[in-house]
Design brief:
Blueprint: H1 3-11, H2 14-24, H3 29-51, H4 61-85, H5 89-93, H6 96-110, H7 131-134, H8 138-153, H9 155-182, H10 194-205, H11 218-251, H12 287-301
Helix pairs in contact: 2-3, 2-4, 2-12, 3-4, 4-6, 8-11, 9-10, 9-11
């Protein structure tokens, strides 16, 4: 065991470690119960925010307002309790879930100073991502890591591809601008500038096709046809890049079962089911059990 773990055993009591397990872990019955209650609160809060925007629900505005403050107070207590139970609070505060947890409670307090910020509370829906950990869907967490790793590994190729796309739409937008403005049959009103023509090229290349801007000259329509055909080939490129990296990630997939255990020091998960120590920082993963064992040994010695 590392020195920091020994120091933590002295500073953190058994009950504080158990509180960490309840709030952060889903491997115990009490932890799973807490997380299920938390999910219900998150769902309830999101539903309340959505219903409060419905015109026919204006008569329930007072009830929605009260419920929202109940949810916010609960989330605020939960947020500061998480900070209290972790060994390195800054790790939680700056983590993905830590930032989301903070952002989810800020909008309600902002309503005291700024009107119209209550709709920002729907960001709490991001907290539902905890469902993968709560219901022990470790394989889904791993698959999510594979996707993120595939995107990260292919980022250079995608950046080069995006640069190529920007050059392509700029060229097509510029050409269609001159074609439409110089032709007697051209749509001069719609293609009134190069930036607006580039916007048309982006919409066409992405196969969105809003229909608000379209060429009317024969040459302009011919260029549009070429761009539309190119769009199908262009869409396949980033898909192929990411798919190739995704396949590599699956080949590296481990056969070991992944647990939902979160390290109380670095707050990282993805450990093997039988791990005793964090594979990232080396700290003990089950400090509450460790402290309990030490207490039993001390009692036996006495």
């Amino acid at each position: 065991m590392s020195k920091s773990s020994n120091k933590s055993n002295e500073e953190f009591s058994y009950y504080r470690e158990k509180l960490y397990e309840i709030i952060f872990e889903a491997d115990t019955a009490t932890g799973r119960l807490f997380d299920i209650i938390l999910l219900l609160f998150i769902l309830g809060s999101v539903v309340v925010v959505m219903l409060d925007t419905v015109p026919n629900m204006e008569q329930y505005h007072g009830l929605f307002y009260t419920l929202e403050w109940i949810f916010t107070i609960f989330f605020t207590i939960e947020y500061f309790t998480r900070i209290y139970t972790v060994h390195r609070p800054i790790k939680y505060i700056t983590s993905f879930f830590g930032v989301i947890d903070l952002i989810s409670i800020i909008p309600t307090y902002l309503t005291l100073f700024f009107a119209g910020t209550s709709s920002l509370m729907v960001v709490r829906a991001l907290r539902l991502l905890r469902v993968f950990r709560i219901f022990k869907l470790g394989n889904f967490l791993f698959e999510g890591q594979v996707i993120l790793k595939a995107l990260k590994e292919s980022r250079d190729k995608i950046l080069v591809f995006m640069f190529f796309i920007l050059v392509m739409v700029t060229i097509f937008g510029t050409v269609i601008f001159f074609v439409e403005t110089q032709s007697a049959l051209g749509n001069k009103e719609s293609f009134s500038s190069v930036p607006k023509s580039v916007y048309w090229a982006i919409v066409t290349l992405s196969t969105v096709g809003y229909g608000d801007i379209y060429p009317t000259s024969p040459l302009g329509q011919f260029l549009s046809s070429i761009l539309m055909i190119l769009a199908y080939a262009v869409i396949a490129v980033p898909t192929g890049i990411v798919t190739a990296e995704f396949s590599k990630g699956h080949k590296r997939k481990q056969a070991k079962k992944i647990s939902t255990q979160v390290c109380s020091f670095c707050l990282k998960d993805g450990h093997d089911d039988d791990s005793e120590y964090c594979k990232y920082c080396g700290e003990h993963l089950h400090l509450a059990d460790l402290i309990a064992q030490q207490k039993r040994r001390n009692k036996e010695k006495k």
